[in-house]
Write a structure and sequence with these properties.
Number of domains: 1
Radius of gyration: 17 Å
Structural class: mainly alpha
Low-confidence stretches: none
Number of helices: 8
Distance between the termini: 46 Å
Oligomer: single chain
Number of strands: 0
Largest sheet: none
Strand content: under 5%
Helix content: over 70%
Shape: globular
Order of helices and strands: HHHHHHHH
């Protein structure tokens, strides 16, 4: 796709962006900003983003992403509970940022591969049955990395940001092709914030 064509599609997409997508995008950026700062507001703000994107993903035949956002919603509640737990005597959070062990890394890869295969298989069937616009391999990759990243984020694992970087990189072209141009721009911002978040959490573990 030539630059002129990309630019034209970008302008047309921005003009067609509805209020639901605008709210979802700003809530998503705000959520990642709060997670970078290890602020518990990541979860209530994130819930606004996920609920709106369930609707948008189904509308755009991004069924894998719809399942991701449903998962985000459930994990946001789970993560909110974990992050809110405090030591009664010290009045500080019980959950701290840590690195994954080798065994945890293995679990992460098994978790990712299992979800990738499951989502890819489901989307391949859906593409033939009723969703011809689905892109199984790309949607499955963006979805499976997001599932893994959200699980690790709830447990405050540094490696969650690595999975988020992969998710955002895959989602930029995926949403652009589907016509959600403003959402694609969001993922560019989230990609940069994920790199910043990784650095920030690595710095905090050193302290």
């Amino acid at each position: 796709m030539a630059f002129a064509e990309v630019y034209t599609k970008f302008i047309e997409g921005m003009q067609q962006t509805g209020p639901v997508e605008y709210i979802a995008v700003f809530a998503g950026i705000g959520s990642v900003w709060f997670s970078r700062k290890e602020n518990i507001l990541v979860y209530p703000v994130g819930l606004i983003n996920t609920v709106f994107y369930i609707y948008l993903s189904i509308k755009g035949n991004l069924l894998g992403e719809a399942s991701v956002n449903l998962y985000y919603t459930i994990m946001s509640i789970y993560g909110w509970i974990l992050w809110a737990r405090k030591d009664v005597q010290k009045h500080e959070a019980l959950l701290h940022i840590t690195y994954s062990s080798k065994k945890e890394w293995l679990y992460q890869f098994i978790f990712f591969i299992a979800f990738y295969l499951a989502i890819f298989g489901a989307l391949s069937w859906a593409k033939k049955a009723f969703a011809p616009e689905a892109i199984p391999w790309a949607d499955a990759f963006a979805s499976a990395t997001a599932y893994t990243g959200m699980w690790l984020m709830a447990r405050k694992k540094v490696e969650s940001w690595i999975w988020w970087i992969a998710t955002n990189a895959a989602s930029i072209p995926l949403y652009f092709i589907k016509g959600y141009v403003f959402t694609s721009v969001q993922f560019v911002v989230l990609f940069v914030l994920a790199i910043s978040g990784l650095w920030e959490w690595m710095r905090k573990t050193k302290k």
